[in-house]
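Hello again,

I reread your note about wanting to compare the complex against the isolated chains. To keep things tidy I'm splitting this into two emails, and this first one only covers the full assembly. Below are the input lines as submitted, including protein chains and any nucleic acid or small-molecule components. They are followed by the predicted structure of everything together. The single-chain runs will come separately.
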Amino acid sequence: MSGKRSLIRSGTTVDQMVRAIGDRIVTGFLRPGEKLDEASLAARFDVSRTPVREALGRLSAMGLVERRPNRGATVAVVTQEHLASMFESMAELEAICARFSAERMTAGERRALEVEHQASACLVQLGAEEDYEYFNTEFHTRLYRGAHSKHIYELTVMTRSRLAPFRRAQFMLPGRLAKSWQEHDVIVTAIMRGDGVAAGQAAKDHVSIVSEASAIFAAVDPIKSGTDSIGVPS
Amino acid sequence: MSGKRSLIRSGTTVDQMVRAIGDRIVTGFLRPGEKLDEASLAARFDVSRTPVREALGRLSAMGLVERRPNRGATVAVVTQEHLASMFESMAELEAICARFSAERMTAGERRALEVEHQASACLVQLGAEEDYEYFNTEFHTRLYRGAHSKHIYELTVMTRSRLAPFRRAQFMLPGRLAKSWQEHDVIVTAIMRGDGVAAGQAAKDHVSIVSEASAIFAAVDPIKSGTDSIGVPS
DNA sequence: TGAGAGGCAATTGCATACACTTTTTGCCTT
DNA sequence: AAGGCAAAAAGTGTATGCAATTGCCTCTCA
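Full-complex prediction:
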């Protein structure tokens, strides 16, 4: 109907919708259980219902929204039980990745892992939460890749993204950085000496910490986000 | 355009399309790499392009088709490498399910598993391939459910469906039924005595058999179906 | 004769219109 | 007054039309 959305840069309209809606869910701007009305969303982002529908479909496949035939879509509501189940899966998947990494990583990958890990030590000293978070993500991604198994990688990344909304919880724990780094250290050490079982166990234990933190804060209200990133005109 | 599709039974049009197209891919009627033209598919099933598009989107999320923006959809082509990766993941996932089942199944679940398993023994005697296949699927589904972890269940079922096209291979192995049953027996026994580690290992080994069978036959051409009806009009 | 640029056809992406399902609301009956 | 039924309103599912992008074919020029 209107002119252009020329300002928006990448991907198709659907991609933008997926990001836009997904972000709002992940950041808690859209609350679990909230109804996602197609027409409203379409009007909100100044697109037609078609891309909105497809975006909702994709988000449904991601597990971020739930869809019932003829009854519309709602922000996925995760029960405490299901959340625990997802963290449990995450622990198992991370364990597998760590085990495989210990057995399969190339010399180069091992070196890179070690270097990055040691580099992040100073971030702990500085208490640079956000920077450490970035390295943390990198670290785990290296583990997933190091498993040299595309499908395991896919499953793991998928589960991680699904858990993203609940990851914020761990930020609230005092002394988290140091603890996290030490646990990483155990994993790295095990991988370096090629001990798959130890690496797997360490990785599993590591996830458990985050899991417990999230369990504590799961009931806490989602944060209120400020402004929209994909702005609607006027 | 036309009147009704009264013959088709359940769910929405999209669901039917997902099943219809998915079946054709799984059964090899549509070959890997084959182009899936929206208009042709729509005409083929006498629906509009809209549900076809949505179905392709879902199948893409399932990993059965690949989609590139503005370039249409093709039947997903899995490399030997990726296939191995998927079977490997499957083995790990089954191992987790078996381990958890050994630790968490209720008395009722254990009993049901045992009963069904014993009942399937006679199917082996009879060499009833198809009936056994049904029980086999049931058996594994029980294991997945027995893990009492919704997310693990989802991951496992997803991976299994993605591997479905390559499962046919195992039918070609002589003496498969007896071997399969014996392996099931090891798993059941371990679960019955609550030995998670043993159950996991047994399940992992069990999948390996199928994996190897598939690896052998993976290079073989998909089954030749009669004529391809969805071709472009001359 | 080969390579590159431009135009054309085909196909995808998005928008809008229509049909069917679900839910809500108001009226009627008990 | 309360409960149930019916009709309308809201919302999802599907169809179709139009715009935009892609890939191919051809025509031109070196």
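For quick reference: Residues 1, 12-14, 47-51, 54, 69-72 of chain A lie near DNA strand C (CB under 10 Å from a C1').

B.
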